[in-house]
Amino acid sequence: MFLFMVGFGYDIHRLAFGEELILGGIKIPSELGTVAHSDGDVLVHAIIDALLGASSLGDIGEYFPDNDIKYKDINSCSLLREVKLMIDNKNLQIVNIDTTIVLERPKLLAFKQEIKKNLASILELQENQVSIKATTNEKLGELGNNEGVVVFAICELKAKEF
């Protein structure tokens, strides 16, 4: 087995009025929210894909398909907990997670610490092992017009030490 494994995750969701905006399990006050089959937590979805990729377990759609009724409106943090168990069962541990959220508004500075704390708790990590960054698309394209939100995530895993 390799000493370290790296995974990359990406997710995008459309934004619409009347929907909730949930990032890292935290409800963010916003007039726009994500359109999705699940709760639309684009941050958690990208992290899940990064973790699955690093552990060579596939991708989020293989385990939690968006056409399966049992995942309708599901709390994405519960899916993240399942993925954490899969990683544990492969005798792997998370070294760190780094994410970038691309969203015009609302500004996320006031929520980043709460998001980080929640994700660290779910993944049994120290807060300094989780990085949440936020940026805009400088009003360019669909993201700049607040039509969607994108998240990029990268993680590093290593074999558990016994």
Could you describe the 3D structure shown?
The chain is built from 5 helices and 7 strands, in the order E-E-E-E-H-H-H-E-H-E-H-E. It has about 160 residues and is an alpha+beta fold. It has a single domain (about 5-160), classed as 2-Layer Sandwich (60s Ribosomal Protein L30, Chain: A). A 5-stranded mixed β-sheet has the order 4-1-7-5-6. A two-stranded antiparallel ribbon has the order 2-3. The longest helix has 14 residues, at about 75-90. The mean pLDDT is about 95.
As a whole number of angstroms, the C-alpha radius of gyration is: 15 Å
The structural class is alpha+beta
As for the CATH topology, it is: 60s Ribosomal Protein L30, Chain: A
Strand adjacency order, main sheet: 4-1-7-5-6
* CATH superfamily membership: 2-C-methyl-D-erythritol 2,4-cyclodiphosphate synthase
Strand and helix order? EEEEHHHEHEHE
What does the overall shape look like?
Answer: globular
Report the uncertain regions: none
Summarize the biggest pleated sheet.
5 strands, mixed
* CATH level 1 class label: Alpha Beta
Number of helices: 5
